[in-house]
Amino acid sequence: MSQPIPQSILCVEDNPDIGRLLVAILGKAGYAVDWVSDGETALTRWSSASLILLDLMLPGVGGLTVCREIRARDVDIPLVMLTAKASTQAVVQGLEIGADDYITKPFEADILLARVQALLRRRARPPATEPASATIRTGELVVDIDAHRAVLRGQPVALTAKEFALLALFAQHPGHGFTRGNLLDRVWGPEFDGFDHTVNTHINRLRGKIEADPAHPRYIHTVWGVGYRFTDAVTTGSAVSERRDHQP
Description:
By secondary structure, this protein is of the alpha/beta class. It has helices spanning 16-28, 39-45, 63-73, 88-96, 109-124, 161-172, 180-188, 197-210, and strands at 8-12, 32-36, 51-55, 79-84, 101-105, 135-138, 141-144, 149-152, 155-157, 177-179, 220-223, 227-230, 234-236, 239-241. The strands form 3 sheets. Strands 9-8-7-6-13-14 form a 6-stranded antiparallel beta sheet, with helices on one face. The chain starts with 7 loop residues before the first strand and ends in a 7-residue tail after the last strand. 34% of the residues are buried. Residues 126-132 and 238-248 have low confidence and may be disordered.
């Protein structure tokens, strides 16, 4: 019987010591590893990968530019930034333009593998993990859970995997308040040990794509001191829920 083809990971890292370490760790775990040391090469090789590990500080084309260009072409491929602990601003920028996660240097091998495995597992299954109607409507927004698609005013909305997972979770629980910890556990997974501002950043990006006025959101409301909740008024299949929206 033929062996399954291993999943391929593109490692973009200009430090040869870290590059060789990534190859060793991931190769030992059974992944096929393609290691490149610059952004230009990464942009020619990323499409054959199952997941991308991307250093931010690269010669020539920088990591943020690479992230932005890949996301413009593929909203689903898991993309993890490798960054120094001090580069908080760069982390926020990377999350804003579509990175799914980040790993700080120096990193532990087991943490690296846990993050990689979690992202690949989530990509292999539908992002909505709870039973729900295939289509959820509220106002001019339609969330098609089965098709992994959102449509606003008749036009498709380009969402990353994390953005859609957040939107699907919200839409399936209208009026329910989620803490940032809830959202981290249910969208990023319990293995994630990053900052709470990861949630804030993704919510801001999602609002920018679905809200006419992100400063006064219609769909995703802030619950002060708690987190976020989706509007109460939704249509699920043929059933309609219309409860008064108490904006905090």
